[in-house]
Structures are given as structure tokens and as C-alpha cells.
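Re-run with default settings, no changes from the original entry. Doing this only to confirm the output is reproducible before filing.
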Amino acid sequence: MVACPETLWSDPSTAKPCWHVVYHALFFLDLYLSDSPRGFAPPQPFGLSELDRTGKMPERVYSKKELQEYLEHGRRKCMAFLAALTEEKALQPCGFRWVGISVGELMLYNMRHVQHHAAQLNLILRQTTSSAPGWVFKAGSALDGKTR
């Protein structure tokens, strides 16, 4: 997200602009860290357009700042989810009929989904700017504010 130039962030000539790839990944990270789609609502200013099967786009372009805040929301939610995850819960069917897997498998699916879109963004950056971030072994800062 940080490495994406502003000119590419919302480039309408691309099939999926970078901002939307980021939003899509963060939306589903948030959704799949919930018990089910029933009652799910992302934080403001985000909506439920990603669940529209016709491919409806959000009403506006989200800024890097907004999506960075959504990323932090997702990181907090993920850490809390994993801290509360028991073996019993991990073996239960997840609340998302369309994937039909256990809660534990859903966490792996969710991780692969985020990695897929991070790789997609890196490919877009390499193809358009000849530059992309290298492998990130660990997040740059902890949620407690301490740099790692």
C-alpha cells in the first residue's frame, strides 16, 4: 500500500485499481474473522459492496490512510481471534456456507487470500514501476506501538 504511487492507486485504466485490491483483501480478512456474514458490518466508511455478486464497486475510492486504518483494525481483530481460538472452536464448521470448511481451515484460507492479493499488488508494482517491496518477514510494528 505504502509503495503504490498515487498515480497508480486509483488508475481507472486498470481492471482492478490498487486501492480496490487492498480494500477487497482487508474486507474479507475482516469478514472471515467474524462468526458469520449475519450481522457483519465493516467499520465506517466501508460498506458491504464486496458481497455483491454482480461485482459492484464501492461508491468511492478509499484513501491509503483509510485503508491503513482498516489494516490496523484487521490486525487487532486477528490477534484477538487467535488469542481466543481453542482446538474445539478450530474444529467447528465455520459460519460461511460458501467455503464449507472448519474455523481452523478458514484461518488458513484467509491467510492465503491476503497473501494472494499482496502478491498481486507486488506484480502490479513491478510491471508498472519496476519496483516493489521485498519479502516482509514480520510486520514493521506491533500493535502495542513497539517497533519490532
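The chain has one domain: 15-129. The domain at 15-129 is CATH 1.20.120.450 (Four Helix Bundle (Hemerythrin (Met), subunit A)).
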